[in-house]
Every structure is written in C-alpha cells, then in structure tokens.
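Reply to dn_fold:

You asked what the input looked like. This is it:
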Amino acid sequence: MLNACSRIGDGEMRRAVQAACVIVALSTTSAFAQEVTLLQKYKGWSAYMAKGSPKVCFAVAKPKDTSPKAVRRGPIYFYISHYPGDKVTGEISVKMGYPFPAGGKVTVTIGSDKFELFTKDEGAFVEKTEEEGRLAEAMKVGNSMRVQGKSVRGTNTSDNYPLSGISDALERIAKECAG
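and this is what came back:
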C-alpha cells in the first residue's frame, strides 16, 4: 500500500498523501500492519517504523478524550513523521475522523501557545516547517494538547491528547530513521 501511495503527487502533497495512507493502513488493513512495526510504546505515544519504499518513522497518539461524545467520527490520531528518503523530519499531521469544509482550519493549543493548521480531506497539517519545530518543542515541554476543528457538517470538535512520552517517542523515531 505504501508503494502505491508513494507514487501520488510530489513534495509536500506526496508526504501528506503518504501520511494519510499510513493512517488508513493502520486503522484498516491487517496485511499492511505486517509492514508497519511498533518500535515501542511511551505512555500516551507510540513509535512506529514502516519499511519499504519509502521508509517512514512516526510517533502517534490517540486522544485521551474527545468532545462532543455523541458524534460519530472515524479514527482520530496525531502524528509526527520522518521521511528520510525526502530528508524530512518532524512533519506533523492530524487525522480528525471527519472531512473539513474548503478552507477549514484546525487549532492546536498547548498551554498558552496556539498553532493554526490547514486542512485537506480528513487531515490537518502545519503549513510552515519552522512552525512544525515550534509545535514539536511546545509538545515536549507541555502536559497536554487540545486539538479543535469544525467538520464539513458544522460540528465543532475538541480532542485532548496527553503529552507524556512524546519526547521518548520522538527520540526513538529519530534514531530509527537516521540517515
């Protein structure tokens, strides 16, 4: 599956498509799960590696709680990915479990720091590389993170993620995807 996904688009769009493919594969395909290896769990975060072409390492977490509770959503995940073949480290993406309207935004809040992400389909992404670094650093020192979005149907959602374990998960994927 990753091989098929790696041929779609170029540059940032290709990586966004690859991230979406990894998300879908983790949540649906048992055959693909054999290609993705859990490296280790670190409290609320897990480190994974997908071998093949391209090799991808990522830290992932599910929210500790979501709101509103009565709304049906698909899988919800927060990712930080490394694509060594493209010399990309620390790419942040969020799978929100619903489609966004055109021009939709997602807000990530850690303490008093706020970050705005752009959306595509069911995902949210950081537009500028330097903002990814700022967000990752805030995650390392924060206790929790709130991710808020609005679906194409107009439903406001809020997902809370623990940040305990993120530093260890990021160190592990950096080690596995070095060079």
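The CA atoms of residues 62 and 77 lie 5 Å apart.
Hope that clears it up.
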